[in-house]
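Discrete fold record:
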Amino acid sequence: MTENFFEMRTEGSAVKAAIVDKYFRVWARIMAARADRIAYIDLFAGPGRYQDGSASVPLLVLEKAVAEPALRDKLVTVFNDKDANSSKTLEAEISKLSGVDVLKYKPHIMNKQVGTEIAKGFADLQLIPTLFFVDPWGYKGLSLQLINSVLKNWGCDCIVFFNYNRINMGLANPVVAEHMAALFGQERAAELTKELEHLSPADRELMIVEKISEALQDMGGKYVLPFCFKNEHGTRTSHYLIFVSKNVTAYTIMKDIMGGASSTHAQNVPSFSYCRADKTMPLLFDLARPLDDLEALLLDKFTGQTLSMREIFDQHHVGLPYLLKNYKDVLLQMEKKGKIETSPPAAKRRKDTFADGVEVTFPPTSEKKT
């Protein structure tokens, strides 16, 4: 995936669009039940369609709003692109959508350069619940100030898509130091540049994504979830999609969506990455045995405690790759091996099920089995 990721509809670009579209559908349904108006804002919207005619995210969002009665009178959409031709093309594509006239709020199309002026404008407003999608070509216009200007308000989540390679190269380029400071923060960017000097490419990537996540959390985005896109050969990282929210339920919903979009699953634990090559390359992911790791983590975290299955999940999964079904699978196995006690016990439940309300008692430290 190169810059054509934004022009040609590759498998990767389709996965990106599907993740955003699926999250929008769930988020919009929840927010529309709680607010009189909700918004979707995309400041790097593009022309609306890929070169093969497939709809990109702006059109997918509007198609959903047209088809959903609960959204027709509540959804406000703002689409921007600094390229005048892209804005005009998007406007024309929107006008062609079947049923678009039923929307109470006509989509607002802008043609502006994204920078401090737009960020300040959002910062001065008390926004309605908003899903904010930031999808620049590289990193210009992408800043903590911009993300925080929307995320500060209730019901607002942000999805950021960026070119990892450009940021990786930009951190070593003093010419774009201003852009790196906008993304990481002045002090963190300077520290990161020094820390990266002697790291391997793999460690550089981990460090860069970790620092971006830290920066987002420091400004109030408590729940941060990255999803990695590899190139077609699986040899290098191309882009990252990062979800940011202040709400753990939103985080859990996106985690399920990203988990389902992952191209590999080891012991049913998603990789939170997509690579076309994963479909043809025989990779021995099960050697890592991530579910065995989860068993040990649970025994350590909840020593001597009694909690419901849902309480275990809610208190434990943030920051880890495991989904709800992974916890149920592991607890079932631990129950069968006698490592935990349950109420009701397996004999009184439907076979091989572990409902949210099943209570689990973990052994004291002295009783843990190896």
Observations:
- Residues 1-6, 281-287 have pLDDT under 50 and may be disordered.
- Residues 11-32 form the longest helix (22 residues).
- The chain has two domains: 3-279, 289-367.
